[in-house]
Amino acid sequence: MLGISHLLISGTATSLFLGTASPTIIVTGAVAGLLPDIDISTSPAGQVFPWVSRYLERRMPHRSCTHSLLASLILAIASYGMALFHPSLINLVHAINIGYLFGWFADAFTRGGVQMFYPSRVKCVCPGNRNLRLRTGSNAEYFVLIVLMAISLAVFNINNSGGMLRQFNRLIASSSGVESLYNASGATNLIKARIQGVRGSDRSRVEGDFLVIQTHGAGFIVQSARGEIYKVGTEAGSQIISERITADVGKAAITTIEPVALEEEQLLEVLTPFNRVGAMVFVSGQLSVDDPESIKLTPDPYQFPYMRASGESVSLEVAPLNQVIEKLGEQFATGNLQIRIINAAQTTATSNFKAQFS
What we know:
The protein is an alpha+beta fold. The chain has helices at about 5-20, 25-30, 45-50, 50-60, 70-85, 90-105, 140-160, 165-170, 175-185, 265-270, 320-330, and strands at about 190-200, 205-215, 220-225, 230-235, 240-250, 255-265, 280-290, 305-310, 315-320, 330-345, 355.
């Protein structure tokens, strides 16, 4: 089999099994696919390591020891043993082992086959009909090369776009895919959800892009371009009942949560320091206030009820900071709050999202 065939097979296998589009890792796996042919001096590996190649060539036939499970086992023990002392290299070690395994296994499809179970001399071939197996440099191998190139480009593109699982979840518009993306990148990036569905109140159509603030039960709390807060999902109590939902990673944004304890303190003084330029801030928690009669809350049936009052008790759940300051800023309160801060440099809560409602 041609060297370029080994490169493509091993590089593609590395990208596919590790779910990576990293050129360094893919190239490492591809080059490792050439190593089994070190047992013949005319191969690329044999020319790079001629002293090793000559030693092996004099003592064993081509595609025997180096094309076997035994060789892969020895390589795995040696490489993963080294990785114990250098954990940062683990992905490169994965690539070397995957590339090497597929490098020699590909030769099982050639006419000569490989001694997979070396030191047994039994050869492993596929398929059983010799005439259907590949001959090095034949038209059939060049046809396989073209197919491999197409597969390689497809795998690289899929992994560069987030991997096969993400693409599958995007295809079926699965909420679990959005949750996985949020769990993976929500602490370091904005997550933009594309939602198609209906309002839970009047079943009017909703379609657009929303900022995912956090998960909530089996759904999500999201914010529209106008700053409106909704719960989206299929559960009872969702303001938007989703029919399709996909998500993408947006610009870098660090999410932090800061606890705040209050003891008869004015909310305006406590919360004002969190009103930072370029940050989206949401408040959750339970408070007891000194003047509940002065609180004027007008429930919006279309939005998530992020602020509720019952007697002296006020419950906040993902309430926008500006709304908390506007409605409760003059209150003296006791209780505990969690301040969720999504800090995206040179952005605002709504500048990245355009929602369309019909």
